[in-house]
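Many introductory courses stop at the sequence. We go one step further.
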Amino acid sequence: GPVRSELSLLAALAPLLSTNLRAQVSPHITVTDASLQGAAAVRFTAPAHVARELWRRRLGPGRYGPLDCDIGYRRGDSWVSELCEGAPVREFARFRFRAQPPSINVGEARADRAAIRLLAADPSEHEQRHNFVKDSRVVLAARAKGRARGRLLREFQLSYPHLLAADIYPGQQWNDSERNNADPGTRAGGLPVPAPRRLWAS
């Protein structure tokens, strides 16, 4: 039955259930986005101290409340968006959906999973803490809580083996849709031209 399957899976993965306290924060920031037609991911390199601060302020269990409430976490007033809009990005992934996802949030989760899979395929990205940026509050909150339902949960489950095997620790951050660097790639557009970089992000 399902309970036996879950216990068997837990037993098989038990050797991987550990935390590398020495894992460093990667300076490479991954931004993902999706439309109902396709998904895309871009990456940029931030100064080491900025990447560490981004990780320190990541959204997690009990820490997703600031969205739309606190200064710096609102649409038009997002410090993560300011960092992203001034960054020259490089394309990391771009693909069209074979079938339209049942919701935009499932598409966002697929974009997230694709980026995780690519990171796991590159040994130089292993054993690191990675910052992920997206504009879907639903996916962010579900990732932060560690639970979801239906197709969204399925997308999360498909990403977990890659995270475990590659010893990758994902940290989640929100940016507003208007300044999401990956957005043009979901609609067959090119890479965005970066805005002047803010002094604090230098």
